[in-house]
Fold:
Amino acid sequence: MADYTYHEQNEMQNLDYIRAICEELPPYVKRFVRGIQQSKASRTQLGYIRDIKTFFEYIYMSYDKQSFDSLKDISLDVLNDIDSMFIEDYLDYLQKYTKNGKIYTNGKAAIKRKLTSLRIFYAYLYKNDLLSQNPLVKVDMPKIHEKQIVRMEANEVAEFLDTVEYGNHLTNKQLQYHSKTKNRDLALLTLMLSTGIRISECVGLDLKDVDFDKMCIKIVRKGGKEAIVYFSDEASEPLATYMEERKKMNPQKGHENALFLSSQNKRIGVRTVENMVKKYSSCSVPLKHITPHKLRSTYGTSLYQETGDIYLVADVLGHTDVNTTRRHYADIDENRRRTARNKVTLREKQ
Structure:
């Protein structure tokens, strides 16, 4: 797999997962997948197909045991007979259910996502005359309250990076491994904090994607679009230090091109970065729940505060819709409006 990039490998892996799940479901589900292939990313397709399988498992469980031998036997006639009340019962079931002896729970956000998958599935079948009705149009989407955006202040960022570099507040056990990984961790986390790249964009970086002459990296955005992102002088030094160390490493086969390597000399994974951020932030910013995505929010906040240019922030973060950016930084806009209340003078003071 050395000839394939991280993102190409992910695409192929997702395709394998999608095909495997489709084999467990009726043929019209595979037709649905083919219908959305050109408009939806493979990761999105996989999310839809997993949600659809969960729904089919509920149908299988709810109907008379003699109705189906397997999920493949759930016909279009069965889907056509399902009404909005059945869907609402399914959403209630999703809040807490047991499968193979394990308890699963879903909050409103997860239920909304699963309902969205069903809506798109039913809409496709209805549009293509495979169903005569669409009960999903009668089911309301769960109302989700906007979460407060969590981000680090400037002093918290400094404390966070000090912990990464010097091991401040780490336990004795953590310090045993810190000297082996601190250059990598500092390079990776400083890069994320100085560019706002997503965790998937970070772990997907290859050695050839770094250009110190232009002070930039080439990343692959959501949907597979390539983009050039510029990193700061502050990120350059730890990145250069790590890359010198990286030259001496012996990557495992298939991981020769990866920029950031794990302790097993494989391309670093998303879970490893999540645990890395959790380790350092729990010591340095204990009152805030900091995740890799919060590093992205922190960068976006700082950039907006410095420039006041929402379009620049949207472009740098790779948001296709500037309104997405606006929603994230509305509280900063409110603060800017408040501080502007006395900027315009109507009459000179006597």
Observations:
- The two ends are 78 Å apart (CA to CA).
- The mean pLDDT is 91.
- Residues 148 and 297 are 12 Å apart (CA to CA).
- DSSP finds 15 helices and five strands in the chain.
